[in-house]
Design brief:
Structural class: mainly alpha
CATH superfamily: MetI-like
CATH architecture: Orthogonal Bundle
CATH topology: MetI-like fold
Number of strands: 0
Number of helices: 10
Helix content: over 70%
Radius of gyration: 22 Å
Distance between the termini: 7 Å
């Protein structure tokens, strides 16, 4: 048990360290970049040097600068998409959890239909309809993930509402808003916060996938996905251009999974009692 505890604690620490580094790089990119994104003076496919730490791409643009902007885009999409998914998903999930049987069944059927479509496929359809832009990508990914959050919220709410303490609260005259604040939310948030962390990583992957397909943020923005797409033609002559954004994307996903594992230990009271 002690080894398991230590593992989970280190998971949270390592995950926060990685994501904090990425956040720091993204914040720095707002106020400073080694080179502007349209600067092509570095020479085509230059090797790493003091002037260009990771070299340049096939157009002579500094790779470090583009990776820094990619971090900004990944985090912006991740946070914004999870916010949209949280608002929409919690609203629909709560409505389904408290609704009458016919409305609950209708909302559940709608959620099943949305979940049947992969998030990336649904996002591709929305972006294709709205046009390629960062805003479209955020909206599409957030909307695509909202059904997962809504379905989970509904299941958690139904589980809490079936407990005896809810019946006792209603018998004592406690209003539904107060029951939600005192009993429902405190009992469902440990699971939801872990899901939000996992969805953040999935949002980053979805954004990179859309950008790889040319449906993400348009130039001169530099998403990690678009960097991977651009580097595939020169991967043999300049492998760092493909390796660097790939490693950063993997690091982002791993960090949020480690954070989710740590949050599960911290937030879930059943795990705390099991120590």
């Amino acid at each position: 048990m002690k080894a398991s505890k230590a593992h989970r604690s280190w998971s949270l620490i390592i995950g926060l360290a990685i994501i904090s580094t990425i956040i720091l790089v993204a914040l720095i990119s707002w106020i400073w970049l080694p080179y502007s994104l349209d600067n092509t003076d570095g020479g085509r496919l230059s090797q790493p040097s003091a002037a260009h730490w990771l070299g340049t791409d096939k157009l002579g643009r500094d790779l470090v600068s583009r990776l820094m902007v990619g971090a900004r885009i990944a985090l912006t999409v991740g946070f914004s998409a999870v916010l949209i998914a949280g608002v929409v998903g919690l609203t629909l999930g709560m409505a389904a959890g408290f609704a009458q049987k016919w409305l609950d069944e209708s909302l559940s059927a709608l959620l099943d239909i949305l979940i049947a479509f992969p998030t990336l496929l649904l996002a591709m359809l929305i972006v294709a309809a709205r046009g390629s832009s960062l805003t479209s990508a955020i909206f599409a990914i957030g909307f695509g993930m909202s059904a997962i959050i809504a379905r989970l919220t509904r299941l958690l709410v139904k589980r809490v509402l079936s407990k005896d303490f809810i019946t006792a609260s209603r018998a004592s005259g406690t209003s539904w808003p107060r029951i939600i604040a005192l009993h429902v939310l405190p009992n469902i948030w440990p699971t939801l916060i872990v899901s939000f962390a996992l969805q953040f990583g999935l949002a980053g992957l979805a954004e990179a996938s859309l950008s790889y397909l040319g449906l993400g943020a348009p130039p001169p923005n530099a998403s990690w996905g678009s960097l991977l797409q651009e580097a595939q033609a020169t991967v043999m002559t300049s492998p760092i251009a493909a390796i660097a954004p790939g490693l950063l994307l993997v690091s982002l996903v791993i960090s949020v999974n480690l954070i989710a594992d740590g949050l599960r230990e911290v937030a879930d009271p059943t795990l705390r009692r099991a120590r």
